[in-house]
Design a protein that fits this description.
Helix 2 runs antiparallel to helix 8, helix 7 runs antiparallel to helix 8 and helix 7 crosses helix 9. The protein is built from nine helices and 14 strands. About 13% of the residues have low confidence. The N and C termini lie far apart (55 Å). It has 474 residues and is α/β, with parallel strands linked by helices. Strands 1, 2, 3, 4, 5, 6, 7, 8, 9, 10, 11 and 12 form a twelve-stranded mixed beta sheet that branches. It comes from Hibiscus sabdariffa. Belongs to the CAP family. This is Adenylyl cyclase-associated protein. It holds the Pfam family CAP_C.
Length: 474
């Protein structure tokens, strides 16, 4: 038994040394705790987690190389830093919130680097970077200090954090399903690292959060390491909120940035902080610029054909007359959130491009009109979810939707939850419509079903019978 334990520890040390030599893992200036923790069951289990799951992610990244390998090394480094922090926690008294923020700085530093990579628009590996950045929020379970800290319980936090990352890993799976199996392998391995990997580890050893040492030393801030010069500056990274000393304050006092912050607020239950609040002066009935009075002072100059200028429409996110949420002309905004809604209200999204909208709670109906590359995540719909005149949109139902209609649309990905599998889907004048449903179990991949766009009409018994075209391959 002792021989096997020594062999396993030697292998773990060799692996970490190899990764450190390759630039994948660093101590981030963490001090040597001076106590041998190698025989601690939770530390041994963490090494097993790295051996069983992290090695698969690293192996897939090695096959891809380049930027995917770089971001994977940062993921492994974050896990390595968390392991060192768990060791330190066993020898340290529980700090106050300010002390906890300082204590967790080394982990936050790695997450900031991944977040900076995820903000690089236009990269062909954007979805990989976002998957990595969103998934690392799961490591924030270590900041759980009790039911009043504003976070979900550690196991639930890991599961909910992965749901945010899965939005982007699904895109990787769809994009590279035929193009390159190595990317598919990477996405699947990344999911396994968190579910069941990290989730089961937390469930077995820290279901109620980290256990501090009441008789240990006082927490001290670890020396910080400045990001490399090549890393873009991130003055207010989204993930920093995980370890903020103000996490116990009401969420309305904490402005959030980025999609990761939106998902974090969804997962923690503090969903109102991400919303662009609608004040009284923003409501239609109180808008002074829409009084309906026609000005008689002066005439509006005519525009000549030679000076034609494209009209830039004003972005809008507001509640009109207490009944209709209008989301219009949003370009490149990934953190649009509506949470102050009810089942009597509708949501109308018009003219938006390259943006993501989160709709919290139940609404009457949702309509997407003339949108391009728009993503919508919603929970429950009373009447219907409609897509009209759109291009390349994605929608994910996390609750129940009785009816989904797609009209005059080119390219739509619909992700259904288990509760919405009975939804009635109607399509008209639309192409490239794919519906993805959950697999047989939580570890299975999404199953994609392309909806038919060609039909055969046959006249039989005095009427036409219509059936979809069936293609069979050799």
């Amino acid at each position: 038994m002792e021989t096997k334990l020594i062999e396993r520890l030697e292998a773990a040390v060799a692996r970490l040394e190899a990764l450190s030599a390759g630039g994948g893992v660093s101590s981030r200036g963490l001090p040597d705790i001076g106590v041998d923790m190698s025989s601690d069951p939770s530390i041994i289990a963490f090494d097993d987690l790295m051996d069983q799951y992290a090695a698969k992610v690293s192996g897939a990244a090695e096959k891809i190389g380049g930027q995917v390998l770089n971001v994977t090394k940062l993921i492994l480094e974050a896990f390595s830093v968390e392991k060192q922090l768990l060791k330190e926690i066993k020898q340290t008294q529980k700090p106050d919130m300010a002390g906890l923020t300082e204590f967790l700085k080394p982990l936050n530093q790695v997450i900031m680097e991944v977040t900076a990579m995820a903000e690089q628009r236009g990269s062909e590996f954007f979805n990989h970077f976002k998957s990595a950045g969103e998934s690392l929020s799961a490591l924030a379970w270590i900041a759980y200090t009790g039911k009043d800290c504003g976070m979900s319980m550690p196991i639930a936090h890991v599961e909910e954090s992965w749901q945010a990352a899965e939005f982007y890993t699904n895109k990787v799976l769809v994009e590279y399903k035929i193009k390159d199996p190595n990317h598919v392998e990477w996405a699947k391995a990344l999911k396994e690292l968190y579910l069941p990997g990290l989730r089961d580890y937390v469930k077995s050893h820290y279901p109620l959060g980290p256990v501090w040492n009441a008789s240990g030393k006082k927490a001290s801030a670890a020396p910080s390491k400045a990001p490399p010069p090549s890393a873009p500056a991130a003055p207010c990274p989204p993930h920093a909120s995980h370890f903020s000393s103000e996490s116990s304050k009401p969420s309305s006092s904490q402005p959030k940035q980025g999609m990761s912050a939106v998902f974090q607020e969804i997962n923690s239950g503090n969903v109102t902080s991400g919303l662009r609040k609608v004040t009284d002066d923003m409501k239609s009935k109180n808008r002074t610029d829409r009084s309906g009075v026609v000005s008689t002072t002066g005439k509006k100059p005519r525009s000549t054909p030679a000076t034609t200028v494209s009209k830039v429409r004003t972005p809008k996110l507001e509640l009109q007359m207490g009944r209709k949420w209008a989301v219009e002309n949003q370009i490149g905004i990934k953190n649009l959130v509506i949470d102050d809604c009810d089942a009597k209200q509708s949501v109308y999204v018009f003219g938006c491009k390259d943006s993501v909208l989160q709709i919290q709670g139940k609404v009457n109906n949702i309509t997407l009109d003339k949108c391009t590359k728009m993503g919508v995540l919603f929970k429950d719909v009373v009447a219907a979810f409609e897509i009209v005149n759109c291009n390349g949109v994605e929608a994910q139902c996390q609750g129940f939707a009785p009816t989904i209609s797609v009209d005059n649309t080119s390219g739509a990905q619909l992700y259904l939850s288990k509760d919405s599998l009975d939804a009635s889907i109607t399509t008209a004048k639309s192409v490239d419509i794919n519906v993805l449903v959950p697999g047989a179990d939580s570890n299975s991949d999404w199953v994609e079903h392309p909806l038919p766009q060609q039909y055969i009409h046959v006249y039989k018994n005095g009427q036409f019978e219509t059936s979809p075209v069936s293609h069979s391959g050799a």
